[in-house]
Amino acid sequence: MELINQKKELRQRILAERAKLSPEEHRRRSAEFCRSLFAFDPLQECRVIMAFFPFRDELDIVPFLEAARERGQEIWLPLTVQKERRIVPYIYTGAADLKQGAYGICEPDPARAQEGNTRDLDAVLVPGVAFDRGGGRMGYGAGYYDRFLSSLSRRPLLIGCAFELQVVSRVPMEPHDIPLDFIATEAGVAVCGEKGR
Fold first, then answer.
1. Which of 7, 52, 95, 174 is the most buried (most CB within 10 A)?
2. pLDDT at residue 74, as a whole number
């Protein structure tokens, strides 16, 4: 119960801080994030990248999605299947592929987009509420990403994506939580692990 309360308090605090960013600051920080992520060498070598479409005041990752597609990388976006509490990735070829889905998030339209084969996945850009330098991540509480990542037959590169204000000293972790390899913010991309804690 204590862990649940810790997560709830941290989630509320970080979301409130993120919501305080002015539109100008949000745009500036998002642009810096996209530039540093696009220049990140290990990601440049990936052929297939699963990303996400920004929701509410999440950082705007769309310029990265378009730039990565222009340099020949395949981008996937998740479709949320609420009844089964899971996400299914679809290949993203542009805004025409999208519809408003679960929670009001823009998601792939299965009538227009092709489902991705997860065996081809080289990297996953993981959204969330709070992150730490040790690879810890706290999402929005539904567990979609933990279930998706644990279902993969091989581990892709896992990169947490957030504003620097979402990085905290320690995220409360549970045994099923999957640690990330890197964390990307407007300040750059940093390796996660024990050295980061």
1. 52
2. 98
188: domain CATH number is 3.40.50.10420
Q: What sign does the CA torsion over 6, 147, 30, 21 have?
A: negative
10 is in an annotated binding site: yes
- pLDDT (0 to 100) of residue 7: 87
Any binding-site annotation on 2? no
Q: Does the annotation flag 141 for ligand binding?
A: yes
Residue type, 32: E
Q: Is 143 annotated as a binding residue?
A: yes
Q: Could you tell me the two tokens for 65?
A: 């999605």
Of 102, 74, 176, 179, nearest in space to 133 by CA: 179
Q: Yes or no: say if 184 and 167 are a contact pair by the CB < 8 Å rule.
A: no
Q: Is 197 annotated as a binding residue?
A: no
Query: Is 144 labelled as part of a ligand binding site?
Result: yes
Give the Cβ contact number of residue 135 at 10 Å. 23
Total domain count, the chain = 1
Instruction: Flag whether 8 is marked binding.
Output: yes
Residues pairing with 124 in the sheet: 50, 158
Please list the rounded mean pLDDT of every run of 10 residues in the chain (197 residues). Answer: 84 95 97 97 97 93 97 96 92 90 84 94 97 94 89 95 96 87 96 63
